[in-house]
Amino acid sequence: MTAMAERDLLAGITVLEYATMVAGPYCGKLLAELGARVIKVEGPGGGDPARRRGPFPEDLPDDELSGLFLYLNTSKQGVTLNLETATGRDLFRRLAASADVLVEDATPGVMAAIGLDHDALCSLNPRLVYTSVTPFGQTGPYSQYRAYPMNLFHAGGEGYTLPGSLSNELFPGREPVQGGTYLAEYDGGLHAAIATVAALIARNLTGSGQHVDVSKQEAAMMLNLLNIQLFANTGELVTRRRSYHFGGIFPCKDGYVILYPREDRHWQGLTAAMGRPELGTEERFRTWEDRYRHRDEVNAVLREWVAAHTKEEVFQTAAPSGCPAAYFATTEDVFHSPQFAARDFFEEIEHPSAGRLAYPSRPYGFSEAPRSQQGPAPLLGQHNREVYCGLLGLAPGELAELHRAGVV
């Protein structure tokens, strides 16, 4: 087999990205990591709002140093373009005419109002895959609604169950919370990338592009799918009172761990590892039913043992026993994980303003396509000359005039 690099997998595919913040740009990032040429279109008046969200070094705001923007936009080219102008819209059409994919996140109807919707652009380029990533999709009574990440997370149902288990025991009166920052947004972007690649495969078979309609609410619901299925089919409503039959989350010396000795062999292996093998066959703990009946006593045993150890000690003792076990890792734990180090998961990228930083890379690898070095996120308008003069054939003087007119 001919050797190829990871960046060759989508080589020759050009993606036009007109999206901000997380979901749409994450879709573009995933495509760029596989070798697509992703041209990110930003407004000339400040660009993607993610540039102003941070985190920033030493908490000093800088549009070129936002950690959120730097991560979400690796390996892309960046241009500025004002779609509020007729000239800007014409340039956008010219870019779309030569693109394979357009990723956009405008409220349904907005792109149609300026003549840049799926029907208009696909009349110019029938092979275009037009991917729309919006809070509630292109149809339905909520399609015109806007939403913050918190709205979306709760619209997907998962927020109703958080905080659960130990958190609910410790703070029973606390209001529902959302998951980790932008969780539903990242899921929306992931599903958009998967659907876009599928549409490209379909295009190879049919010769035609199509409109890919991604609902971030529906992507968020995938996080909570089992609970929704339970309610739809049995009427069972999972709430924050959900808990483990026995076992679960326990505080240790330096954080929290989870132990779930559901099966007999789990319990016997764990108690032997704890140095108390007699509990493995004691009558009150012998079977699942026995342990469930005496669950408070089971949890008291586990809680006492865990409290005397660090999370690493608990994990290293419990995991080899066969009992499901894990500790709740901090950001520092994750960054220094020997597993990530062994797989070179964190990759250093040099950025012209931010310098050399470590970035999370890809959670996959290909046996016939060695991992490629990713490029930095673009500066605002960094590739205007390369794209407008190189790709569209504008003269440098024309580009300067467009800049003076506020088009780019």
Structure description:
With 408 residues, this protein is an alpha/beta fold. It folds into two domains: 6-223 and 341-404, Rossmann fold, CATH 3.40.50.10540; 248-329, 2-Layer Sandwich (formyl-coa transferase, domain 3). It has helices at residues 23-33, 67-72, 86-97, 110-113, 118-124, 149-155, 166-170, 183-206, 216-221, 225-234, 264-273, 278-281, 288-293, 295-307, 311-318, 331-335, 338-342, 384-391, 396-404, and strands at 14-18, 37-42, 76-80, 101-104, 129-134, 211-215, 248-252, 255-259, 325-327, 346-351, 355-360. The strands form three sheets. A six-stranded parallel β-sheet has the order 3-2-1-4-5-6. It has a three-stranded antiparallel β-sheet with strand order 7-8-9, with helices on one face. A hairpin with a 2-residue loop joins strand 7 (248-252) and strand 8. Helix 1 (23-33) crosses helix 8. The longest helix has 24 residues, at 183-206. The two termini are 44 Å apart.
